[in-house]
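REQUEST
  id: r-88c1
  op: predict_structure
  target: Pseudouridine-5'-phosphate glycosidase
  payload:
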Amino acid sequence: MNKEVLKKYVDYSDEVKKAMEEGRPIVALESTIISHGMPYPMNLETAKAVEEIIRKEGATPATTAIINGRIKVGLSEEELKFMATSKDIIKCSRRDYPYIVANKLNGGTTVASTIITCAIAGIKVFVTGGIGGVHRGAEKTFDISRDLQELANNEVLVVCAGAKSILDIGLTLEYLETFGVPVLGMRTEEMPAFFTRRSGFKLDYEVKSEEEAANIASTKWELGLNGGIVVANPIPEESQMDEDKINTAIKEALVEAEEKGIHGKETTPFLLQKVLEATEGKSLEANIALVKHNAEVGAKIAVAMNK
Ligand code: PSU
Ligand code: MN
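RESPONSE
  id: r-88c1
  status: 200
  body:
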């Protein structure tokens, strides 16, 4: 990408600009979780808390978004509030990105489009809650999140709490394997299922520390094995949800989505909202806890990678 051309499109926050100049570790964050993933005011409080955790660990947070067509790397407090409250924000994946930029609109960046922004800005570590994946029934709907292809194609390490069981976790792992994306369990042998620590799917590799994950990523890229890495970091024990309860809520949400003909980009936000209602907000508490935990791990990885 041509640096001069990019200046036309990209704004860095002062904090991120400074960290880049000084060669300090930076951690990217998405904004669809703010605009579409959580209700106000918990979305804003969580976004701020997550940034603070990253600072405390010695890294600089760079929440990404598109605001008035400007590609943002790092948001001011005012911009965070805008992302948390405005109804005028489009859920932005790769195919939405040029339309939103060209027409000076606002985009909440998903995992897919945050990875695109990371590639533009040269950021190697990105923290989120859960990645998108292969949806249940994808053999009929073809619904496979763009997140997986961006992971396959870009040099970025994404810390997440696994994939939600609104998805087909087994097929998601198969897809990542086909496209050469390593999935490292952070102090776990099993792929976590977002709200719960276990999914029943064993991972090939467990890492015991953030340093180990950082070293594997650096090695991959030095070898020219380009593309991303997933670090799957299970939700803390004490914040885990009851497996039966969450699975019942998910099953009901899937049935309702089918009845209502929900499809495409509406699917994930719809399912999340239904699960939230069915669990009387418990799923939101779990979501917040796991994102914070991911921020801590991601910042530690970014710090280790920078050494
Ligand atoms: N999972 C969550 N909360 C979210 C998302 C996923 O628990 O907000 C968002 C992320 O931004 C992810 C996107 O990248 O949903 C995936 O959407 P889709 O399945 O339409 O690709
Ligand atoms: Mn989809």
